[in-house]
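Structure tokens
________________
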Amino acid sequence: MNPTLTLEAPHARWRNEYWATLIAGGIVLILLLILAGPLLAILSQALFDPKTQQWGWGSIEAVLDSPSLLQSLFNSVKLALMSTLIVIPLAYLYAAALTRSAMPAKGVLRMLALIPLLAPSLLPGIALVYLFGNQGLLKSWFPDGSIYGFWGIVIGQVFFTFPHAMMILLTALRVADGRLYEAASALGAGRCRQWFSVTLPSVRYGVLSAAVVVFTLVMTDFGVAKVIGGSFNVLALEAYKQVIGQQNFSRGAVIGLLLLVPAVLSFVLDHYAQKKQQALLTARAQTLHIKATPWLDRGALLFCLVVSGALLLILGTAIAAALIKQWPYQMQLSLQHFNFDDMDGGGWSAFSNSLKMSAYTALFGSILVFTGAWLTEKVATCRGWRPILHLLAMLPMAVPGLVLGLGYVFFFNHPSNPLHALYGTMSILVLCSIAHFYTTAHLTAVTALKQLDAEFELVAASLKVPFWTTAWRVTLPICLPAALEIARYFFIATMTTVSAVVFIYTSDTMLASVAVLNMDDAGDTAASAAMATLIVISSAAACAIFAVVSHFLQQRSQRWRRQE
């Protein structure tokens, strides 16, 4: 035996473990800076009274004593409840039609239901103005102008939140044990009785999760209310007005904390429901075979066509507004609204900045997420970091983007912060976007990694193969579909977000989604529709590019999946 090898192997293994632990600790430190730091900063700002220059509850008490603010809070809760009550039944029926019927064109209808994910939240508001506003084609439907207010916001929020609820319910309805339905049929239970005794108990936690997501999204979004809310004020819009309009950062911080409360409560409720959920499938479960029922399949197809048609109507109206010369007087096609450099609120540089920011977020966010999940799940020496990393990774789910962005103002703009130089740069926009969308990406990576057997790492360790070699040659190729999905999610979500970045951009880092907001403020509604249309087109193009890249890369790295 070569004595040199026996002495060097333990040293090399210790060095590998040292670097792995160091990298994992560095990722935890990054998450502390981009997540915990801003939240602590917004808490401290809310507890500081600028009038008395003292710490205390004065600012919070002043805000809570404000009748207008309490009315905004009531309006937000009312709006969120109504939107949830409308979206959940629609999303459930749509998901049930896709999973529990034999209707045709399921793939196309599923894709149409996800269209709102490609658009910023301001787009439905703009489209509703062109449809039902003072000069709208269907203004007779709202003759008293009531589209500007509660019901206008509700319709816009239904469009915005529908795909989020539908995806959750689609996942819940896909899991079914055919034996339960066979037993119910044998006992003489009709379709209605089967739904109450079999289907509803199996999907009730999915319904609750979807309701929590919709409620939280509506509570924390201000885009739709900003465009079509009229005099109906909501809490998220009040926070935006206090910070942007009045530069009242202390009051804005308090409102941010109020927005954080329903989001945290919703997160806790969803977490509690998931703990109570039991396994729906066992080893003896049988696949539920859907039998063709002509009247049911035709009804399901008709319902999906109506819902997807309504979604396309809103999207199509926004695109048409961008291409029509002057709605509704001069209906000729024109590209004049795309001349952004001659308009207030943003130019072509805003669109270019959004593409850059989304690309950087997709690249660095995917690396950060996958590296952190891999180290804590697959490298034994790093598992001590797992609890704190998982806690930090789940934190963004309970933090609205508006609150996180406000926290970035207080944290990174503080003169004593060594990272102050990042403020006003593209880097802070990328960091905020990674933090905002970290939870979903992290859960995707962890789910993919948990599917791999631990023997890969054990065999590599016995052969004295460095852990990064195993990750590069084995783990990453196997998890490539999940890694590409994470990158795609980061790109699309960053391209369409408004709330997380609306407080931290500068004139040099203006973004397309913020330009939509600013141009609408300036009265250039058609130009804002044009910019929103570009966001939709670029998001759709990105999805197509990721699909093509994923196909070719998987042809090379996923051949083992096709081997018999």
Notes: Residues 3-46 form the longest helix (44 residues). The CA atoms of residues 167 and 475 lie 28 Å apart.
